[in-house]
Amino acid sequence: MSDSTDAGLVGVIGGSGFYEFFSSAEQITVQTPFGEPSDPVMVGEVAGRRVAFLPRHGRDHRFPPHRIPYRANMWALRSLGVRQVIAPSAVGSLTASYGPGTLVIPDQLVDRTYGRAQTYYDTGGAVHVPFADPYCPVGRAHAAMAARASGWVPAASGTLVVIEGPRFSTRAESQWYAAQGWTLVGMTGHPEAVLARELALCYIPVALVTDTDAGAVEGDGVTHAEVLEVFGANVPRLRQLVEKIIEVLPAERDCPCPDALDGIKLPFELPG
Q: Which residue of 51, 113, 205, 223 has the fewest C-beta atoms within 10 A of its own C-beta?
């Protein structure tokens, strides 16, 4: 079943600094079969597109990474008509080449989580979605183009390993991840990406490096304060970049994402 190629609304899942997207917005409370999302969704206009913003951790940052209601969040966005999702996040670097402030548009993902519900299809029969390339290729290309146009030259590829959290990695874990050739480490990129694929959404990661992970360089390791300081200093620039990405995203989805569920018998009808 091919989904509509109409891009619909743009969804943004990010931090509280993104509330400044809108001069005016409507707050919408959404109920889903998977509970309530992290917060009510704010819907307004950005760069000529209708945009739905959802704070990943909640407005008051009450959800740690392993407790975020990922299934409810993605379901809520789709039910409101979202078909393209931009997902800015803070990540650690597994290489000294990517220092704090580096922008990365990753193209691959490794799942090292273990306690998260990560599928909508756990009842009603087996549903196997393709996930070899976890992110929307067209969305990634437009995100990289927008970054270069804004003067923030990105690393246009990279592998993000997602850990369970909420603790940071040990030095040995960090060194092991780096030895595999993985370049970034974070706590929120999974299961967001696979849930987006299960809903035939375009998912576009935008990763800001806030620290170098414990095993990548000598030092005292990562601290929460360090992550918040670097991310906070870059929020205005990151918000401007996301606005630019919204502006350049195509209004029709000419990518594989709408066809992700072709040939699959679903146990229920998708929302929206």
A: 223
